[in-house]
Specification:
Helix content is 42%, strand content 21%. By secondary structure, the protein is an alpha/beta fold. Strand 6, helix 6 and strand 7 form a beta-alpha-beta unit.
């Protein structure tokens, strides 16, 4: 476990940037952390055919569009930081690809705050659709992902941890410990479909002892084999328990440049209704 002392916040031109900034400030206030806001988007040049992009007139138009998008993002940022709360610095990526640039900056942060991809939104092309997964897998850092819809009043007061005996779950649990220690309620749902009942009981006891050693007293829940997608079941349970944060491992690997994710990870990233802390 490492304390949360540096938060890297992704900024773009979407209105949800202000929501992510508010979440970052909540966390920074609670953990006495510094926040770095990093504006990073894909240039409109990427969307243009090469022949058109080579045109001086078209190039000038694209530069103007990029500049206007930056100004919108900066204006949103300035309005958001006027509210009371910890300071947030404004930084920008250069001309490098946004995934690569943000991943490099993420190497020097304790926690990332990112926004859920919103297909069909005006700003959907600001970053690639696999931005979250690529940054998580590329940096090895935990990320708190804020949903693209809904109000986010609190984060980390009532937490659900999704646990399975795996490297990814262990990484997510370790990253979440500073949050769990300050939470009012902690729930842990565990499953191990290949385990016997005796082995599963032993795993739950070990998990409970581990959390107790860090001052966390959880309420344990158990899922064995059951119908439906695990991601859907997790999100349903968060609604039943009134959680304001879900903690889970991000399962996936890169093969031929195509990210292949576990079913629960994919479902939660697509349908999340509350902030989710993920680690790989």
């Amino acid at each position: 476990m490492s304390p949360i002392k540096s938060i890297l916040l992704h900024l773009d031109a979407s209105p949800r940037s202000a929501v992510r900034l508010g979440v970052s400030r909540q966390l920074a206030q609670r953990h006495e952390a510094a926040i770095t806001g990093l504006f990073g988007v894909t240039s409109n040049f990427v969307e243009m055919p090469f022949a058109v992009a080579e045109s001086a007139e078209a190039g000038a138009i694209v530069l103007k569009l990029d500049a206007e998008r930056r100004e919108r993002a900066l204006a949103l940022f300035k309005r958001a930081v006027q509210a009371e709360g910890p300071a947030v610095s404004w930084n920008e990526l250069g001309t490098e690809p946004v995934i690569w640039g943000f991943t490099q900056a993420a190497l020097y942060a304790d926690l990332l705050v990112l926004g859920q991809h919103e297909p069909g939104a005006v700003t959907a092309r600001d970053v690639p659709a696999d931005f979250i997964e690529s940054v998580l897998l590329g940096s090895g850092k935990p990320a708190l992902i804020v949903p693209y819809a809904g109000e986010v009043k609190t984060v980390g007061e009532n937490i659900l941890v999704a646990w399975s005996p795996s490297r990814e779950s262990a990484r997510a649990l370790d990253a979440a410990l500073p949050l769990l220690q300050k939470a009012q309620q902690v729930h842990v749902v565990s499953w191990s479909e290949e385990s016997s009942a005796l082995q599963a009981a032993s795993e739950r006891q070990q998990l409970e002892r581990y959390l107790a050693a860090h001052g966390v007293k959880p309420t344990l829940h158990w899922y064995g084999d059951g119908p439906g997608n695990a991601g859907d079941r997790l999100l349903s349970l968060t609604a039943d328990l009134g959680n304001d944060l879900l903690v889970m491992g991000c399962y996936g690997h890169s093969r031929a440049r195509e990210l292949v994710l576990g079913g629960a990870t994919r479902t939660v990233l697509k349908s999340m209704t509350l902030p989710v802390l993920m680690a790989h």
